[in-house]
Amino acid sequence: MSANKIDFNKALTSEETLDPENWDQLKSLGHEMVDTMMDYLRHLRDQPVWKKPTREARHSFNRAMPTEPQNREDVFQDFLQHVLPFAKGNVHPKFWGWVEGNGTPFGMLADMLASGMNSNLGIGDHAAVYVELQVLNWIKEFLGFPMDASGILVSGGSMANFTGLAVARNSIPDRDIRVKGLFESPSRLTVYGSTETHNSVQKAIETLGLGSQSFIRIPVDKNYQIDMKLLREAIDKDRKRGRIPFCIVGNAGTVNTGSIDPLAQLAVLAKKENMWFHVDGAFGAFAAVVDELKDEIKGLQEADSVAFDLHKWMYMPYEAGCVLVRDKKLHRKSFHIAAPYLISHERGLPAGPESFGDYGMQLSKGFTALKVWMSLKEHGTEKYKRIIRQNIAQAAYLEQLVNQSPELELMAPVALNIVCFRYMHEDLSNEELNTLNKEILMTLHEEGRAITTYTMLGDAYVLRVANVNHRSRKEDFMQLVHDVIEIGNGLLADGFKRDRIIKRVI
Ligand SMILES: Cc1ncc(COP(=O)(O)O)c(C=O)c1O
User: Fold this and answer.
1) pLDDT in tens, 195-241
2) 228 vs 194: CA distance, rounded Å
3) Which value, to the nearest 10 degrees, does the dihedral of the CA atoms of residues 396, 398, 404, 406 take?
4) Residue 121 near residue 359, CB atoms below 8 Å
5) Residues 292-324 pLDDT 10s
6) How far from each other are the two terminal CA atoms of the chain, in whole angstroms?
7) Rounded CA gap, 196 and 185, in Å?
């Protein structure tokens, strides 16, 4: 046995631990850390949204791995000097990039408590498991999903989509794919979703062994919603040629424009075709809590599985994704494997509720639920509803500002909280506008004014504002419009000649 090679007498004469020798000293450093982060969050507005990590900071990450202890104060100083100043910026009131939430100060503290408890939710009869179960019940109630559904908190929307689609694939009747794999299903198993579907769905389909060719992308209409007629035709055609259509993915809030597919119609079609209905509601699922949007989002509650993030439009610190599955039995059947070391007991720690390991890929699983549980208690659902509604109103306000500005052009309908627009000049070709808008975006970032990101709509490069920011105010959007116009005008006044940019001189 290799353990015999260790001289245990020697090792045991000077036993060590990773706990501090001086608890009081660490406690006071801990207080300083809390003060630092509270002040940081409190004064974000006075700071640039983003600063490129300096050469010095980047070099600091090339240092050799420490073999001997360093002073904790020095380690903290290193964080203050090289890490914190170069944060991504998604905590800032003027960050609207990709779809990234802010987090909250109380959520940060909850994460500290969770980390201190260091609970592993994989299995066992302990409070953290009950907290997650309660959180799942609260979320089902909040979204209007059936209370007998199952669910699990995961790292994010990508993992939630993967989990939902894994259950869909494993639940194809008469296939027993978990046991037999795909080898005994020679017909192609096909999944349908719009061309606007997030790439995490394709990743899941590939990882599930179905192959990306099995993801049938259905074109969208002018509102970026899936074309129902083309979807029906594609399913029909595929059945006729011997394929097995088994799942429809609906979008509650597409990543590009925030558009919501006709979920109720998709639910009916899926039922009629005996197919699984999965909804990717990464952020848009929370439109379900806004009364004015109930009609648009109708059908979400009919899904067989729904994936969404709490770190996006519920403003929880990263990471916090979630998947709900209507049929708890199918969910468990998809992931449960009996193992002698995981058997539930009548009493003692292994006597807890069912293992979360039976409902997803992870066995070891952190206490993500605590920040969700504490945050929901801190604010109550009514406040979340108000701030989600506020984000939608802010997007509509930005849309209005864009429409009122002759220098700007709205590039897609604003369905929810995403606004796509660009700086416009009629003398410029589309290609030149693309280059100009990209330059505007990079300047916005480099000057730390605001973070919007980008996407391509057709062949147009657009500035894209995704508002899941509880810190933004109306004037921040006014300032954004002002900044974009100012930068765009400035570039054009410069002749926009900086050789790498547009050749044409205005
Ligand atoms: C519509 C949609 N689906 C899925 C995802 C993936 O979520 P995550 O980044 O949490 O993995 C995103 C991310 O922005 C998204 O917008």
Assistant:
1) 999 999 999 999 999 999 999 999 999 999 999 999 999 999 999 99
2) 10
3) -140
4) no
5) 999 999 999 999 999 999 999 999 999 999 999
6) 79
7) 28
Mutate to test the pocket of ligand 1, among 259, 261, 310, 312 (most ligand atoms within 8 A of CB): 312
Beta bridge partners of 298: none
Report phi then psi at 417, rounded to 5.
Answer: -125, 15
Q: What count of residues does the chain have?
A: 506
d(CA 316, CA 135): 13
103 contacts 317 by C-beta, under 8 angstroms:
yes
Residue with tokens 């309660």: 134
In this structure, what DSSP letter does residue 413 have?
Answer: -
Nearest to 169 by CA among 113, 220, 211: 211
Cα-only R_g, the chain: 26
Res. 175: pLDDT tops 90: no
Nearest Cα residue to atom 8 of ligand 1: 157
Q: Give 409's strand partners.
A: 422
Which CA distances in Å does 189 have to 165, 184, 213, 216? 12, 12, 10, 10
Element (H, E) at 421: strand 418-423
Q: What is the DSSP string of 234-273?
A: HHHHHHHTT-EEEEEEEEBS-TTT--B--HHHHHHHHHHT
Question: CB 40: neighbour CB atoms within 10 A?
Answer: 16
| Nearest residue to 285 via CA among 319, 316, 317, 309 | 309
Q: What spacing in Å lies between the alpha carbon of 200 and ligand 1's midpoint?
A: 7
Record the tokens describing residue 332, joined without a space.
């468990």
CA of 216 to the centre of ligand 1 (A): 19
Interacting residues of 298 by C-beta distance below 8 A, sequence separation 6+: 263, 264
Crossing angle of helices 105-117 and 369-404, rounded to 10°: 150
**Which of ligand 1's atoms lies nearest the C-alpha of 158?**
11
Q: How far away, in angstroms, is 19 Cα from ligand 1 center?
A: 38
Is residue 104 a contact partner of residue 371, using CB atoms and an 8 Å limit? no
Contact 225, 260 (CB under 8 A): yes
Distance CA 48, CA 447 (A): 8
Whole-structure pTM over 0.70, yes or no?
A: yes
| Residue 96: burial class (beta carbons within 10 Å; 0-12, 13-18, 19+) | buried
CA-to-CA distance for 154 and 157, rounded, in angstroms? 8
Give CA–CA dist 83/37, Å, rounded.
13
CA of 331 from ligand 1 middle (Å) equals: 22
Which residues, other chains included, contact 348 with Cβ-Cβ below 8 Å and sequence gap of 6+?
125
CB atoms within 10 A of CB 271: 12
Q: How far is CA 366 from CA 111, 132, 351, in A?
A: 10, 10, 19
